[in-house]
Amino acid sequence: MTSIVDGVQVRTAGHGSPVLLLHGIGGASASFDAQLTGLAPKHRVLAWDAPGYGGSADPERPLGMAGYARLVARVLTELDAVPAHLVGVSWGGVIATRVALEHPEVVRSLVLADSTRGSGIDAERAAAMRARPNELNRLGAAEFARRRAPRLLAPGADPAVARRVEDVMAGIRLPGYASAAESMAETDHGPRLSRISVPTLVLVGEHDQVTGVAESRRLATSIPGARLEVLPGGHAANQEFPHRFCAEVAAFLSEVDETVEVAR
């Protein structure tokens, strides 16, 4: 099933407590195909295409991280999916973090996978992120993906998975990517992480060379009560080892849902 809210396409599968999947800056809802089916037996799983990605309309202007968070809250409200578990990979995890900080009423829990505090943690990383859209414009999406996609994978990754990751990245469009990159460059959630009040699971691929295990460990130690699990794979661990990823997420969501039911 597919829904459209304010130009944003959302794919839905299953029934149960709602889970919103938020993809990375080089992805799309297609990056979560395995999670759409893997989590559907016990959950209503929603996977969005962020503005300017996949089947969603291009943004007219950069949204900013606060704008993405507002949009997530609106999508969840419009689709009667509040409160939802938010599962964000990389950039999607940064969006999920902002939603938890600014719209906690729509959030049941957080899963931050191969994510980060944002690229605004220092000037060098912010500048590198702001340079990426120019590289995309210069190379074109296909060549951009050919050069960048391998960094998302662990050494010796399944060639079929590698092709899939590259194919999805080759579908990115400049308006969406530029808006996403600017939102990352402006963001440093580090000083605010201690304010997050929902149950949080941090996942990271042991070979992640994009955001890295150390960054995920910092998220886990900074968010009250959060726990860290290191998975096989690289930055795209949810695509390289989908069964392990789904198992970790499903167990965490079940634990949170059981706690909610007991509280009632």
TrEMBL record:
<dbReference type="InterPro" id="IPR029058">
    <property type="entry name" value="AB_hydrolase_fold"/>
</dbReference>
<dbReference type="Pfam" id="PF00561">
    <property type="entry name" value="Abhydrolase_1"/>
</dbReference>
<dbReference type="InterPro" id="IPR050266">
    <property type="entry name" value="AB_hydrolase_sf"/>
</dbReference>
<dbReference type="GO" id="GO:0016787">
    <property type="term" value="F:hydrolase activity"/>
</dbReference>
<protein>
    <submittedName>
        <fullName>Alpha/beta hydrolase</fullName>
    </submittedName>
</protein>
<feature type="domain" description="AB hydrolase-1">
    <location>
        <begin position="18"/>
        <end position="238"/>
    </location>
</feature>
<keyword id="KW-0378">Hydrolase</keyword>
<dbReference type="InterPro" id="IPR000073">
    <property type="entry name" value="AB_hydrolase_1"/>
</dbReference>
